[in-house]
Specification:
With 324 residues, this protein is of the alpha/beta class. The chain is built from 10 helices and 15 strands. It has helices at residues 41-47, 114-134, 151-162, 174-182, 196-203, 218-225, 250-255, 264-270, 272-287, 304-312; strands spanning 2-5, 16-19, 29-39, 64-72, 84-88, 97-101, 105-107, 142-146, 166-171, 187-190, 209-214, 228-236, 258-261, 295-300, 319-323. Strand 9, helix 4 and strand 10 form a beta-alpha-beta unit. The model has no long low-confidence stretch (mean pLDDT 95). It holds the Pfam family ADH_N.
Length: 324
């Protein structure tokens, strides 16, 4: 089969599309024919050696896929060959086939397009877990979303609205803000044209944000850390801007708010039951039309490096998808 292979940590463009052996079926696992694979910011960090996970070489990146079941291992009764599924693969998704534990494979409802299904898992599930389990977002609270036109930011905008929040979208361009508005944002802030701290103060009537979904880092994080409401929750989701900020803990003390880490991958391992319940809720919302994956572009497997670079350069509105 064809796959994107990382032989050593280095620039994204060093990745090669090559022939590798098909995965070998194991008990408790299924092999999925990959029709689409979601592209996420951590994928680019991973192949450069900048992520917390350090796989053995060679490895195939890609942790979320959609397609059909090609083969079923021993002990599996809830999945069948030919069934449409979405799967959380951890690694191996940028390939024509991938071996996945059956516990991390879910039926893909017929109304959901396969490309949207592949892009649903990580971005929307991260936002869902962050707002539901980590922030415990309440109806009527103010939610600030940075990077609000990216895959997980746009998901946070949508899910925040479902949960009854007033959503403030923070983006770097008016074009990105227009997308966030289309999917539910109530207030729009272009941080390239406005001072973010001042704009947040005005938008919250001086109260500050109850919850911030922060996935940019750098100066954006610093502005948000000074714009929190009493008993607010500042969610640390990622650092798409490239700079991991240092946090002055006296701010949390004086302003009485919490800094809360969000690592969805660990959540799936520590609370598989909660993960399954979240995914069922997400899929129900999707079928009901309450949430939507915006696919910016779908590229073939041999253009995976182009897709990854576009994500890493923050040029994406919604999600990038690879179609093996």
């Amino acid at each position: 089969m064809k796959a994107i292979v990382c032989e050593e940590f280095g620039p994204i463009e060093n990745l090669a599309c090559k022939d590798v052996a098909d995965p070998t079926l194991k008990a408790g696992h299924v092999i999925v024919n990959v029709e689409a694979a979601g592209v996420n910011f951590p994928d680019g960090l991973l192949v450069q050696g900048l992520y917390q996970l350090k796989p053995d070489f060679p490895f195939i990146p890609g942790n979320e896929v959609a397609g059909t079941v090609a083969d079923v291992g021993e002990g599996i009764s809830h999945l069948t060959v030919g069934q449409r599924v979405i799967a959380l693969s951890n690694l191996g998704g940028y390939a024509e086939k991938v071996l996945v534990p059956a516990t991390h494979v879910m039926p893909l409802p017929d109304p959901i397009d396969v490309k949207e299904g592949a892009a649903l898992v990580t971005a929307h599930a991260t936002a869902h877990h962050a707002l539901k389990q980590r922030a415990k977002l309440q109806e009527g609270e103010t939610l600030v979303v940075t990077g609000a036109a990216g895959g997980t930011g746009l998901a946070a905008v949508q899910i925040g609205k479902i949960m009854g929040a007033r959503v403030i979208a923070v983006c770097s361009t008016d074009e990105k803000l227009a997308l966030a508005k289309e999917y539910g944002a109530d207030v729009l802030i272009n941080y390239q044209e406005q001072d973010l701290k001042t704009a947040l103060k005005q938008a919250t009537g001086g109260k500050g944000a109850d919850v911030v979904y922060e996935c940019v880092g750098g100066e954006t994080f610093h502005a948000c850390s000074r714009s929190m409401a009493w008993e607010g929750r500042l969610l640390v989701v990622g650092f798409a801007g490239g700079e991991i900020p240092k946090f002055p803990v006296n701010l949390s003390l004086v302003k009485g708010y919490s800094v809360v880490g969000v690592f969805w991958g660990s959540f799936t391992q520590h609370d598989p039951k909660g993960f399954a319940q979240n995914m069922q809720e997400l899929l129900t919302w999707y079928v009901q039309g309450k949430v939507k994956v915006v696919v910016d572009e779908a590229l073939p497997l041999n253009e995976a490096t182009k897709a990854m670079a576009k994500v890493m350069n923050r040029e994406v509105k919604g999600k990038m998808v690879i179609t093996p």
